[in-house]
Design a protein that fits this description.
single chain, Tumour Suppressor Smad4, alpha+beta, 15 strands, 2 domains, Rossmann fold, elongated
């Protein structure tokens, strides 16, 4: 039988995945594929597993959870030079990367795709030696995810991020940053910055509507320092995806960035703690093969 590695986070989202674990194993066994489940207890558990068992011997790897869980899987794959397809079961609070591929939230629909063999290539970002699949963030929004109460995350979902973000507004302060690309250098005072591979972040589905996960380029958005009174207008522009030309937004595309600041800044990658500046940010073009469906008809071929 072909082996399939399942890495799942039992605490993601509303913890519904653990109630369906037997169903997942059953579906794959019916297709003569043996599921090896690994519970996501610690960040390094998957890397330690790959040191004992070659991940390239598996037909595919399944990541069940949110963006943070997928981030853990992809980092382990890259550090251990594993190149097999990745199937995503988006069962977390933040599923922005899965949103790009229009992956369903229903477990049966997820399994239809995971059991099939249709794939889409995806780039991976590298911030120093740390990989990210959807977004790298800097500035006032960096630690909102880490400081959001886990109970609120599971109960309110992405709404909890919005509520936490609103509470941070009075504490906002700008950061001076230097951004160097292959074509230009920018120095500015910013509130926050997003280096996007996908198109959504924190549930904002139109944060980077021009982004493409397999074009070999980041979509970079720098939100400059501005009076608080101008924030509501920018917020509504972001909600509708009309912020690219906003006077307080710098937008650029690049495959390489050098980020520097005299202040002590730590980045966030896919909602997890990332590296401190200065840091080089690069893209690995088409590093992943992601299980997707070819069109809407595929969903009905169960």
């Amino acid at each position: 039988m072909d082996k399939v590695l399942l890495f799942y986070n039992p605490n993601s989202g509303n913890r519904v995945f653990t109630n369906n674990l037997d169903k997942v194993i059953e579906k794959f066994q019916k297709k003569k594929q043996l599921v090896i489940p690994i519970r996501a207890e610690r960040y390094d558990v998957l890397s330690r597993f790959f040191k004992a068992d070659d991940g390239n011997d598996y037909k595919k790897i399944i990541a069940a959870g949110g963006d943070g869980t997928i981030n853990t899987v992809v980092n382990a794959m890259i550090k251990n030079d594993i190149d097999v397809p990745l199937s995503i079961l988006p069962t977390g609070t933040a599923n922005d990367y899965a949103y790009y591929f229009d992956l369903p939230s229903d477990i049966d629909e997820m399994l239809k795709i995971a059991l099939d063999e249709f794939y889409t290539y995806s780039d991976v970002g590298m911030a120093g030696d740390r990989a990210f699949i959807n977004v790298m963030a800097l500035g006032m929004l960096v630690d909102i995810s880490q400081r959001t109460d886990p109970v609120a995350k599971n109960t309110l979902g992405v709404v909890s991020y919005y509520l936490k973000g609103m509470s941070e507004i009075p504490k906002m302060k700008s950061i001076h940053i230097k951004i160097t690309t292959d074509k230009k250098t920018i120095e500015t005072d910013m509130l926050f910055m997003l280096i996007m591979n996908g198109r959504s972040a924190g549930g904002f589905n139109h944060i980077a509507p021009k982004a493409d996960v397999n074009d070999g380029l980041f979509d970079v958005l720098v939100f400059k320092n501005m009076p608080l009174v101008e924030l509501p207008n920018l917020f509504f522009n972001v909600m509708s995806g009309q912020h690219y030309d906003h006077k307080n937004v710098i937008h650029l595309k690049s495959s390489h960035l050098r980020l520097e600041s005299k202040e002590k800044i730590r980045a966030d990658v896919d909602g997890e703690t990332g590296p401190e500046l200065p840091v080089d940010v690069d893209i690995i073009h088409n590093r992943l093969r992601i299980n997707t469906f070819t069109d809407n008809i595929t969903r009905n071929l169960w």
